[in-house]
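Hi support team,

I submitted a single chain yesterday and got back a structure, but I'm not sure I'm reading the token output correctly. Could someone confirm the output below corresponds to the sequence I sent? I've pasted both exactly as they appear in my results page.

Thanks,
R.
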Amino acid sequence: MRENAVLTDLYGSDVALTDPQALARWNALQQAVLAHGAAAPDHLAATLAADPGFGLGHAAKGLFVLLLGRREMIPTARESLDAARAAGSPTAREAAYADALAAWLADTPEQAALLIESVLDTHPGDALAMKLSHGIRFILGQRRAMLDVLDRVRPAYDPKHPAYGYYMGCRAFALEENGAYDCAHAAGMAGLAHSADDAWGLHAVAHVHDMTANAAAGLDWLSGNEAAWAHCNNFRFHVWWHKALMHLDLGQTDAVLALYDTQIRAERTDDYRDISNATSLLMRLELDGVPVGTRWEELADLAERRTGDGCLIFADLHYLLALVGDDRPQAARTLVARIARDAAAAPTDMNRRFANPGTAAAEGLEAFGDGAYATAFARLCAARPAMQDAGGSHAQRDVFERITIDAGLRAGHWGRVRALLDDRTARRGGHEDGFAERRRALIDTLSQTPAALSAE
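Hi R., thanks for writing in. Yes, this is the structure output for that exact sequence:
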């Protein structure tokens, strides 16, 4: 076990590294993580190759692996924990990273977040801890906690801090998810101005444009700023997804399909984040009556192989979208049944989310695929109050909101759908997007038919 940390990283924290080259790669790794850079795995591998006994590096690797939300990667995370424990913990800060990894492996990611945040109590400028807290809280759907943590460490991030731009990008996203759209816009702009590769901050501003129904301005914002996300890992597909959403809101469906084929599914990975981009976009198109051809098939093939995963309800619900979209009822039933089993198992942090909103949401999506719209509407409405807990962003979860609304329309529940549209608009600061406008117009038309006069 090493007795003392002898080098200091770019954020001012001591680290148990003795080789300046290893430190340089560790610093590069941290900045790449903040920027969602594709080079991050290479920097981490080089760090651990230079110093295989660097416990903090192994603990960070395990946490990065768990953020992928893939059941088959859990053994790799356990190996990382074993390596971190074997290396020892020369400081309480480094021990907290390993403890956080152990907590997540024990199915308590909320405790993992708290342990990472304990680092920030003594090292508020530790931008890696800040980013990990942000990521874990995000997948847990804890939007208020995201912002609270950032508020707590804000004094440590002045413009001279090497991660100031990335901090502002995280702050922009947390503000947007909490409905502070003007402040979020300003923070995202500040982040990108300070760090030109701050893709998270740029994407936070795209979220603001989505939530304030300003697709034209959103396209202007993203167009010409491609360099801010060109360096990214698969996060770049998500930024292109945002651009596609803006085209969709403006009715430019040919542009949406072109982006789907050339950017969003340029690499046909089975990463749940990439699948969620693709499935939610195809579903939005189909709800608007746009044929998507055979695009569901490759997604459903991937989803069918992941019905037993069960790491994140957010991922499972998007796998289910693929199975519903490609009309695979048996595979859909298999996935819905597995979600129900997890919901009934020991009440871990994730199993509680499978129970609520997972079970009702999954049953609602399955019913929608079967054409049982009254059942779909009832079950999706039951899930709706807890959908925040499924994780993801407002923009990502909006696909489930849209399916709920369209199920209600197809079941003839005009009054209840109007109420849902009103609530959706209120959550967007009173801004009405193209989807809501089109649905209100449809309700006005349908409700004038003789058969509708006696409906709800």
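A quick pointer for reading it: The mean pLDDT is 96. Let us know if anything else looks off.

Best,
Support desk
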